[in-house]
Write a structure and sequence with these properties.
Elements: E1 8-10, H1 15-24, E2 29-31, H2 37-42, E3 50-53, E4 63-66, E5 70-74, H3 79-83, H4 93-100, H5 105-110, H6 113-117, H7 130-135, H8 164-170, E6 174-179, E7 182-187, H9 188-191, E8 207-213, E9 219-227, E10 238-247, E11 250-259, E12 266-267, H10 282-292, H11 306-324, H12 333-341
Parallel strand pairs: 1-3, 2-3
Antiparallel strand pairs: 4-5, 5-8, 6-7, 6-8, 9-10, 10-11, 11-12
Helix pairs in contact: 10-11, 11-12
């Protein structure tokens, strides 16, 4: 049985107290739901002196606002509640889909939006027990000096495995961070860094307090599609989030992002440009999806073959786009090609 290490457990009653504790306790980590952190601690992937609980902080589970004025979500909002929340039933449906696809019901009842945004990047050589990692000589992310995925690389290639992160980019969400030096408001894209170890711009003493979804003008639709081996359990090995703004059935603008194909969510909005000013049909969506998979560069450090995952990138982009366009997601041209090939 894997056991937690000995550590102090601190329970502040305010955001200010929590950040102050973090600044005074080097090596401390924040914990909310703990669904990702606790297993990592048991595998000795982190060396932690103290855990600072965020569960007693006031207002962290609130969901305020509407489509016309924007929606503000507390970072402590529970994933299962967000998956079914009325405020996310329209233009922000992709976030509800992402929250509803995280792991198992038990995890969704515990996990929080802030925690999912900050899920530690994963790798087959890293997310193992201490004994397993020791047997292979450890890796760059923990205790070693070589990335076992790309041995000549000076950086870690662990994979961003958050379901909500690509959605936050596609919906142009903004993140509020509170630390001992004050409050910062940043675009979701600015939160992430392309490094499997130093993967966010959040400082150790900072807490994500809110996630803000901007007001929507006119009609907007969104969708999130996730690829994994076991549909009711696993982390994503590919996530696709898209958001489309419409004017009388014509695309005004489209945004999208990929998850689990790099150390940070990958913005593919530039590749969705041909949709602008068009009424998307089967052929156009397939052509856009074919091009939009270019930034997808999966490596051999998560589940299933990275060659197959690369091939499925365009298929899942097509499915997400069709879903957001109100078309049958499984009736696309690329899906038909994959079925015909027997892949």
């Amino acid at each position: 049985m894997l056991r937690l290490p000995r550590l102090d457990y601190l329970r502040p009653r305010s955001v200010e107290e929590a950040t102050e504790l973090a600044s005074k306790n080097p090596g401390a980590m924040f914990i909310a739901g703990g669904t990702d952190l606790v297993p990592n601690l048991k595998r000795r992937q982190f060396e932690v002196t103290s855990l600072i609980s965020l569960n007693a902080l006031p207002g962290t589970r609130r969901v305020d606002g509407d489509v016309e004025h924007g929606v503000t979500i507390g970072a402590g909002a529970i994933l299962d509640e967000l998956a079914q929340h009325a405020a996310l039933a329209g233009p922000f449906r992709a976030l509800a889909q992402a929250c509803g696809s995280v792991s198992t019901p038990q995890v969704r009842f515990m996990g929080t939006l802030g925690g999912n945004l900050l899920v530690d990047p994963r790798c087959n050589y890293y997310n193992q027990t201490y004994s397993w990692r020791k047997a292979v000589g450890f890796c760059l992310k923990k205790d070693g000096d070589i990335c076992l995925v790309a041995r000549s690389s000076p950086r870690c290639w662990a994979v961003s495995s958050s379901d909500s992160a690509p959605v936050a980019l596609a919906l142009n969400a903004h993140i509020t961070l509170h630390g001992v030096k004050g409050t910062r408001h940043i675009p979701a894209a600015a939160l992430y860094k392309d490094d499997g170890i130093d993967y966010t711009a959040k400082k150790p003493d900072e807490i994500i307090t809110t996630v803000e979804l901007p007001a929507v003008e006119g009609r907007t639709t969104s969708a999130y599609w996730k690829l994994r081996r076991r549909p009711a359990f696993d982390f994503p090995i590919l996530g696709v989030a898209v958001a489309i703004a419409w004017d009388d059935g014509v695309v005004r603008e489209a945004h999208g992002a990929l998850g689990a194909v790099g150390s940070q969510p990958v913005d593919i909005s530039a590749f969705l440009g041909p949709l602008q000013g068009a009424r998307p049909d089967d052929d156009l969506i397939a052509e856009v999806a074919q091009a939009a998979d270019k930034p997808s560069r999966p490596l051999d450090n998560t589940d299933l073959s990275h060659y197959w995952r690369k091939r499925m990138s365009k298929v899942y982009i097509e499915r997400a786009l069709r879903d957001a366009c109100g078309l049958d997601p499984l009736a696309g041209r690329l899906t038909a090609q994959v079925k015909a090939s027997g892949a």
